[in-house]
Amino acid sequence: MLFPLLILAVLLIPVLGAHHISLAVYKTLAKAEKPNAKVIRIITMIGSYIVILAAILALILFNISFER
After folding, report:
1. What's the pTM value of the predicted model, to 2 decimals?
2. Is pLDDT of 31 > 70?
3. Where are its TM segments located (predicted)?
4. Overall average pLDDT of the 6-25 stretch
């Protein structure tokens, strides 16, 4: 039980980093008054959430394969 949680924690570290980077990029572009700053932030956030969902799905499949 501990091993899959460890994998999830390791996979979530870069995702949280990407989330903070997208926030920093948004703030920088907003200061420069770029019109597409919000679009870029939304795209990077969607990408980070897709990675989170993929990691959770991989853990579920990983646990199912070990139970058999």
Report:
1. 0.52
2. yes
3. 41-62
4. 73
